[in-house]
């Protein structure tokens, strides 16, 4: 896959952000209260647009294209964004906190390094439903099953889900990823459906969705290929690869 095509895929996701329309993890299941206390809803002017992962009481990771203008590293004003944490509902419950500042990866371009760090205006109160997740120190072995979570609808034009949805995918090897997507980058991971009949996967608006293995954050949702719920792998940001950048920019 060329970087130009990757830009087009991210642009499609950005259109839904501007229109405040998102989609949920295709063919997933409703999450139980407190089961994914690190998963947050990123909201733009009051509407859910993307997912995110809580990594401290006041820092969230998400996809850069969720917060930037037209593929550039310039973000929308931080005050336009809020984060809802500690609730499986996207529009009620938990804690709603304004974003204070946004750090976009300085090398974000052509769909690569699609990562942003959000600093909240005030620390969240940590409890059973609101907890940060540890960052993966290395990429798990290919073939393991990762769990990911997000909000939205079953299809591109469907209504949003009010509840957090959870799904699973298999981590592909670098060789499999390159073979299926024709894209090789250390900062990317490929996750494929565990069952081709259900084809769980991310969709428009699920950018920023956390992918977790062994209670560690392994990936952040970046893009999908071939339509929502297709048999093609989804692209996730490799958190182990970005650990140093995350540490350097976390207050």
Automatic annotation (TrEMBL):
Top-level taxon in the UniProt lineage: Eukaryota
Record-linked CDD domains: Tryp_SPc
Catalytic activity: Preferential cleavage: Arg-|-Xaa, Lys-|-Xaa
Entry's EC annotation: 3.4.21.4
Record-annotated Peptidase S1 domain positions: 25-251
Main location: secreted
Compartment(s) where it occurs, according to its Swiss-Prot or TrEMBL record: Secreted, Extracellular space
Alphabetized GO MF terms: serine-type endopeptidase activity
Top-level EC class: hydrolase
Pfam families named among the record's database cross-references: Trypsin
Signal peptide: 1-20
GO biological process: proteolysis
Presence of keyword Hydrolase: yes
Sequence similarity: Belongs to the peptidase S1 family.
Record's protein name: trypsin
Organism: Drosophila albomicans (Fruit fly)
